[in-house]
Amino acid sequence: MQPIRVWLTPPGPNPWKVVFILEELGIPYEVKSIRFEDVKKPPMIDVNPNGRVPAIEDLNTNLTLWESGAIITYLIEQYDTKHTLTYTSLADKHHLNQWLHFQMSGQGPYYGTSGWFIYLHPEKVPSAIDRYTKQVTRVLGEWLVGDKMTYADLAWVPWNDRVDSSLVGVPEHEKLDAFPNVKAWHERMTSRASWQRSMVLRAKLMDEQGLLPNGMPKGAMPEGIESYSDYVAQVNAGENPVFEQ
Fold first, then answer.
1. pLDDT of 23-36, one tens digit each?
2. Domain 4-79 adopts which CATH fold?
């Protein structure tokens, strides 16, 4: 079997949904890592005209595919022949698909939008921050379908792992304390060898691009500040020399 080529930018959560599943199923793959600022340029737009990651090229089937949900569905249907991460009964099969779509339409967009308004939007918009942080807490759930781990659970992990960047004043080590069942589930998921291998790869690719674990360039954050929450607190307090100009 030839390796599946995975196009990604290492900071964002979505590519790691695909890598996590590839690792869990033991499917050989190779990574094409590009910088975020290059997603709208060739060769990325030659693979995905929409200029987004992840995308895959599977030489075993001569298929190029983008959109993480579509890729996950393809990998499960094509390669999970033992139904390790799926079910075959009518109800469970479609409930899995339902939760995958909710991850793409609910979890990812709400987490991402909340993080944007908290940290990146040029103006503070309290009503938007309030709305989207409430949506983040609303969509947090626990076991999704059936009595075993499935691709739906795997798809939720990368965004949940970054939830501290979608909430106000929540440090990384306390990110799921308000949701004990979710926290226990998340810790079971992230203790898996497949996740650990995925994160070792992510750390390597981030380092190659000169990025901190939170996606910011190395040297952009003051010494001793490691989380978005601490960084924003310092900025708001007027203690960051970058904002004194």
1. 999 999 999 999 98
2. Glutaredoxin (3.40.30)
